[in-house]
């Protein structure tokens, strides 16, 4: 089956293309990319309206799919349905499941569920340590062989410098990154919100920005020591950005990601419009305006490598409790694209090509996975975006099993038109006038 | 006034003065031989307490009874929580029985905000975690008003565990709204970051805070809310921050000394100061009943206003 995507604006930074190009898909691969490709017999024509963008499939390198163990929050099937509705053709899922993804059996189970769902590609991330207990390395070669693309003890930062050193050293032979949720647990204590005026005034225990940056500096030093590849997850504090810049300037192999909520929201959301809204509680916490602005600056100047959502679904009853009792986390897969367009593209923070770099090219590079490119012969993982579509976020209509988003009801400009994985149309937005398949 | 009293943050200076004036009238009821008026007859008030409290719960209950409300005490710490029921579910169950008001004491900041979003009943915050304790600040203001001609320019020193204190937050909000000159003092480890944005002066020198003060307000060292070491020892705390007669002598000659209770004698306050001539600590307790009657009356009055409209 051959299809020709004709018209629209192709943005493919990996191949230096930005303009009106046609894309010929043959089965699950991209066969040709060029201007004014002919419509040959046996080729189905898919007309892309002008103003609509065709780009390599987006990759979210930080999601929680909750399966196995917490299927009441999300499953691989519902999570990947949310992913494709959000324009993501691939997601990398965190190992803090129950049981923890610290062995091939769990990895294979996740991959089996992903194959059954047959929506977005799923790249499991294994644990650094057995049971994420921070004591003994997990069987990392086994995880790698089973299909894991990185390791992390996300949510339970690697407490000792020694274990982190060993993890960075050991993984260097596999060319897989160690992803760290940077947080000094002793400084965090039982904090629930960013330490600052808002937390003080609301009587919430604080988590200082330095809880994050201290561990980032430690890990960057260890990356220099070992030559290992370090990726800093969901950076939230301006001090951490300074640590990353320092590391990059001194040749450490360090990359980092920022979530949409950390470049859009601040801790003022704790007080208003809804005081103590548990959908403003996540870890790392929403920080101050200066931190939010630093994240925008880091995105603009290239210090930040990727945008990832930290999609963290929780059931409604789990979130409908006292603020300090609520679990950390919000969903993100179905709001990321609209937030990126509205806050980064339409406000002139980033060029489109740079945004595709952050959402597709760089995540593929960091994780060493296919994608991020519309080169001839590459898998036909394609996202079609409608930059001027007016979107009203509706938690109730989301595909994710959980509805814990602080963006419910927000009006945003920019959205997803369609998502294609391996040449198959896996999502199409009825609101976009697109004659497709 | 609004539907609920969740915090001083929601009150205007006019509303604060209205509560204080209403409390004047309410106090007179407590001085009668028959200390009861029919104002809240037929109204049901639930005192929902998730934290142990003697003073506040008793004070609310006496206030409710003096206004002829039907009162019900629910001490949840020992019942539903242990069975795993959430605050939201407990609230829905109580709401199903149609009380008019719920007085909530809870160890989590913002618990009353959650309740307020669930319940049609009026919510009175009787202390939520480290956030606010509005009726305490109102009774403190009432007590100050009895001794001082005006709030404007009054130097009030608030000393102690600032980080964990809901009394501090409510008092700082109230006193700055009434243009008092508020000084807060405590160990640097117990200063909430950004607290100066409430419009208070911050100092780690108690002597500076109490110098020429009109009012000294002591805060309890809340050992139950402290994890980790905030200061070396209770002995050292008393040496550096304890309110002694020597320190009191730096204040104005007509200074009054307040404490929300329960006191740790010999930790934040010396016994001779607590029991001495400047202390108005028991007056605060007495005034608590009148102020809470005023709050109950004003919130219930709002119900009638709405029905009439």
Q: What integer value in Å does the Rg of chain B equal?
A: 19 Å
Number of helices of chain B: 12
Largest interface: A-B, 24 and 26 residues
What's the number of extended β-strand segments of chain A?
20
- Percentage of residues in helical conformation of chain B: 40-55%
Low-confidence stretches of chain A: none
Order of helices and strands of chain B: HEHEHHEHEHEHEEHEHHEHH
Task: Please provide a written account of the structure.
The complex is a heterodimer of chains A (437) and B (309). Chain A is globular. Chain A has 437 residues and is an alpha/beta fold. In chain A, a hairpin with a 2-residue loop joins β4 and β5. Chain A is built from 13 helices and 20 strands. With 309 residues, chain B is of the alpha/beta class. In chain B, 41% of the residues lie in helices and 15% in strands. Chain B has helices at residues 13-29, 55-66, 80-83, 87-96, 111-118, 134-147, 166-177, 206-210, 234-241, 245-248, 271-274, 281-308; strands at residues 44-49, 70-75, 101-106, 122-128, 155-159, 181-185, 201-203, 215-218, 256-258. In chain B, the strands form two sheets. Chain B has a five-stranded parallel sheet. In chain B, β3 (101-106), α5 and β4 (122-128) form a beta-alpha-beta unit. Mean pLDDT of chain B is 93; it is low at 302-309. Chain A binds chain B through residues 189-190, 195-206, 274-276, 317, 320-325, and chain B through 86-88, 106, 108-111, 113-114, 117, 128-132, 166, 169, 192-195, 197-198, 227-228.
């Amino acid at each position: 089956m051959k299809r020709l995507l004709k018209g629209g604006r192709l943005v493919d930074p990996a191949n230096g293309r930005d303009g009106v190009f046609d894309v010929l898909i043959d089965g699950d691969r991209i066969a040709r990319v060029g201007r004014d490709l002919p419509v040959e017999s046996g080729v189905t024509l898919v007309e892309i309206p002008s103003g609509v963008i065709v780009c390599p499939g987006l990759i979210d390198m930080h999601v929680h799919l909750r399966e196995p163990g917490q299927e009441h929050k999300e499953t691989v099937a519902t999570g990947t349905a949310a992913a494709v509705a959000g324009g993501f053709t691939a997601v990398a899922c965190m190992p803090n499941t129950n049981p923890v993804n610290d062995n091939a059996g769990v990895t294979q189970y996740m991959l089996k569920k992903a194959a059954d769902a047959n929506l977005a590609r799923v790249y499991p991330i294994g644990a650094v340590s057995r049971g994420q207990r921070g004591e003994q390395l997990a069987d990392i070669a086994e995880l790698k062989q089973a299909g894991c693309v990185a390791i992390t003890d996300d949510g339970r930062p690697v407490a000792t410098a020694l274990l982190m050193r060993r993890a960075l050293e050991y993984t260097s032979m596999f060319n897989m990154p160690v992803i760290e949720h940077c947080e000094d647990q002793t400084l965090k204590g039982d904090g629930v919100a960013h330490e600052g005026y808002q937390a003080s005034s609301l009587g919430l225990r604080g988590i200082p920005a330095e809880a994050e940056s201290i561990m980032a500096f430690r890990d960057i030093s260890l990356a220099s020591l070992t030559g290992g590849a370090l990726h800093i997850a969901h950076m939230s504090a301006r001090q951490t950005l300074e640590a990353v810049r320092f590391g990059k300037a001194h040749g450490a192999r360090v990359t980092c990601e920022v979530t949409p909520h950390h470049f859009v929201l601040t801790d003022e959301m704790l007080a208003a419009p809804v005081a103590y809204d548990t959908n403003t509680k996540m870890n790392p916490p929403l920080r101050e305006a200066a931190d939010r602005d630093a994240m925008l600056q880091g995105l603009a100047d290239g210090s930040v490598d990727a945008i990832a959502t930290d999609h963290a679904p929780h059931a409604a009853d789990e979130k409908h409790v006292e603020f300090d009792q609520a679990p950390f986390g919000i969903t993100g897969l179905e709001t990321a694209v609209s937030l990126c367009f509205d806050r980064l593209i339409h406000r002139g923070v980033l060029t489109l090509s740079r945004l595709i770099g952050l959402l597709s090219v760089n995540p593929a590079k960091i994780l060493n996975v296919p994608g991020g490119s519309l080169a001839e012969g590459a898998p036909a993982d394609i996202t079609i975006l409608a930059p001027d579509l007016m979107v009203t976020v509706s938690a109730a209509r989301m595909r994710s099993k959980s509805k814990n988003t602080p963006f419910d009801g927000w009006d945003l400009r920019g959205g997803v038109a369609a998502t294609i994985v391996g040449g198959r149309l896996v999502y199409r937005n009825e609101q976009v006038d697109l004659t497709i398949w | 006034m609004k539907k609920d009293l969740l915090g001083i943050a929601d009150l205007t200076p006019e509303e604060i003065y209205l509560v204080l004036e209403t409390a004047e009238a309410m106090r007179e009821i407590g001085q009668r031989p028959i200390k009861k008026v029919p104002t809240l007859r037929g109204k049901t008030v639930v005192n929902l307490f998730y934290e142990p409290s003697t003073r506040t719960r008793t004070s609310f209950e006496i206030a409710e009874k003096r206004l002829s409300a039907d009162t019900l005490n629910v001490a949840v710490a020992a019942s539903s929580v242990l069975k795993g029921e959430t605050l939201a579910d407990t609230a829905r169950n109580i709401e199903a029985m149609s009380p008019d008001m719920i007085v909530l004491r809870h160890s989590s900041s913002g618990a009353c905000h959650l309740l307020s979003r669930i319940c049609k009943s009026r919510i009175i915050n009787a202390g939520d975690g480290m956030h606010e304790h509005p009726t305490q600040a109102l009774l403190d203001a009432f007590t100050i008003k009895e001794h001082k001609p005006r709030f404007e320019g009054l130097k009030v020193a608030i000393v102690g565990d600032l980080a964990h204190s809901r009394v501090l937050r409510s008092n700082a909000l109230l006193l700055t709204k009434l243009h008092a000159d508020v000084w807060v003092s405590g160990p640097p480890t117990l200063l909430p970051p950004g607290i100066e944005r409430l419009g208070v002066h911050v100092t780690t020198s108690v002597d500076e805070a109490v110098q020429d003060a009109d009012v000294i307000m002591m805060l309890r060292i809340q050992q139950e809310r402290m994890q980790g070491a905030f200061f070396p020892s209770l002995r050292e705390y008393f040496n550096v921050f304890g309110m002694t007669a020597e320190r009191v002598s730096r204040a104005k000659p007509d200074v009054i000394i307040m404490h929300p209770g329960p006191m740790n004698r010999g930790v934040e306050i010396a016994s001779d100061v607590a029991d001495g001539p400047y202390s108005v600590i028991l007056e605060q307790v007495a005034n608590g009943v009148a102020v809470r009657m005023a709050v109950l009356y004003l919130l219930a009055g709002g119900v009638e206003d709405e029905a009439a409209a």
